[in-house]
Amino acid sequence: MTTPHRLPFLLTRGVLSGAILGALAGLAPPALAQTGAAPVAVAKPPLKKADTEAAPAAMAATAAAAEASVDATVTVTGNRPTNRIDRQVHDVKNDVSATNSSAADALNNLPSVAVDPDGTVTLRGSTRVQIYIDGKPSAMLQGDNRGATLNAMPSEDIESVEVINNPGAQFGNEGGGGPILNLVMRRNRKPGGFGAASANGGTAGRYNSALSGSYNSGAFGLQGGVNLRHDGRNTTHENDRVRIDPVTGVTTHSTQDGSSSGLRNSAGLNTAMTYKLGDKDTLAANLALSRNGNDGRAQERYVSFGADGAANSDYVRANRSSGNSDSATWGARYDHKGEVSGETMKFDLRVSSMTNDSGSAYSNAYAIRPPRALDNQSRQQNVTENRMVDFTGDYERPVDQAFVKLGYKLASHKNSFDTRYTNIDIATLAETANTARSNRFELDETTVALYGSCQMRINAAWSAVAGLRTELTRMNFSPMNGQPDVGTRYVNAIPSLFVTYRLSDSTNIRFSYAHRIRRPGAGDLNPFVVYRDEFNVSSGNPNLKPTNTDSFELGYESRIGVLDTNLRGYYRKDTGLISERKAFISDTVILTTKDNAGSNQSGGLEFTLSGKLLPKLSLNTSGNLAYTEQRIFASISTGETKRHAVSLSGRARINYQLSDDDQLQVAVNGQGKTLNGQGVRQPNVTTNVSLRHALTPALSLVLNVTDVFNANKIETITDTDLLKESSIRRSAGRIAYFGLSYRFGGAAGAAAGRRGMGQNRGDGAGAGFGAEPRG
After folding, report:
1. What is the DSSP string of 558-569?
2. Which among 59, 185, 442, 462 is placed 20 to 30 Å from 584, CA to CA?
């Protein structure tokens, strides 16, 4: 499969911007004519909110039913929509393993999504993924905090996950500006009280437990939960590196092998309250707190070889780490319904913070001592702080033959890094600050955004959403080493367009386009050299500019026999790509930094098939055939180079009802070869098995085994004219959890118990009950 340099679409960014501006000005039919959709002259009644797709989750059931008359939805099980005009929605709450797995496990079950053991998330092979909670970015899911948070968050707290490959105008560009995975948290609005409790024990002393509940009476609603987790992944890794001198061609060989271990504690609590002031006004507030431990032990062996192939340095470096990562999120919201049907006004404030305080104590022991090297000790203290304040206002109203949304956003994002490295004399225990490995850096980012979008039902078959977002961003970073502050500003216009054609009652064709920007993050901009280990250091680049992305998608959704079918072709082009560059700063030490030298284009075909093959057997399978081409800076001698990769990834999840009380689920996930920095990442396959047995209508036993064949690994290969490197990282993936899940209170609890928590519904998908995502 090849990807053309010129799109077969007669759509340019300027044409799309003009079309969107025209649509927002009330010229919807001519604007759509520019995209190839012929204007249709038909008499149409005034459009109501219920006539458009993507109605807010809080709309009444009558509105949702009317919405289906315009844009038919494809469903897996039940009656809840799986797809909307701008996103695909996946129900995860009824997964068999939900009561003892993490958010990372839940994301790993989604089509074209992969989460590695370190918590790195990719979507269609790209790591430039934003993760939202109820439609908003959160500090605890930014930067290095993301992996620990996803591995600690119980998947049972998640109602559904929305995959938004081409985000619309209501979404901002914080945290990467790429596609969005929106975690819609559980909400229960049924009258009365309802609760759930789970307790699970795992191999090697692991355990987790959770308790959640809700109470709704009249105008008042309250819900919350607490969770505890003691979990982790022991890892081993091996690295073989050859440096080639650019002048003499002489090679220098080194190896690095190591392991890490330690189960870490995490705990969290959350609560949310709603109060209806009347038929038209609602107040809501929420609070969430969590703590993740950073305790662990690691050991690394470093060996360097001379030109004759003999080892000239061989030592072991031990590391004992400690500390905690604390997060807090609170928010308030006011919703008002206007006099006109479908008219709403919403104000939402979210404040989140994350403080990661970790310390590492190092000691070196030499087997082969190079000249002047001594056994030594040292320690490093890292304090990272991340704070986000997000205030949005949204107004929605039917206008003539369209439904218009207008909104604003005021956001502040502050990051700080403080690293202190200290050398310790092993004879006197005297401590000396190592200024070369210590640094402090702060980034202050402020964003003001305005957006508008127009939802249109052109006729019984055609519907569209056109949007335009304008963002003003100010970034100010302080090196905190006596150097002056550096600041920059960006103004960006961001168009988007979504079109749906209803081919029949069960078949839709969808087209979407979005322009996005990826601003460099704090770690990308930090100019200090940050110590990673004895062979690896990194630094940011304060001169980085945003990456611009244009993304197109064409989808076909239908039903073939008993299977719901989705087929999507996509194309994405990145210019001014923020990419990694590696360079030797000594015979054995590599510096990894970032620059804007290069571009990336990718395309592919993605499919999903899901449904009940037999009364007791359901299937959910997906695949992605992708082509990626990168132009990046390779080295001073070769300059820019072009690389490409063809990747085939897929997953299959089978649910089988063994009996009225027993359900078995088997999931196989396979990731194809992907480009990774200046190297490539090799394919990887894992298999997970879950079994649920209903003891009573409300009490169930759950067994979950991840990576049954213990095959999970991250293998990367780099091959340039100056560097030959191979690296393999393995995690203790085969982990078993066994536990109890109990649901109580109200008819909902009994019904959930009778279903065995997912009986014949493990592959279902739904829109979720969270707040409508806004950016």
Report:
1. EEETTEEEEEEE
2. 442
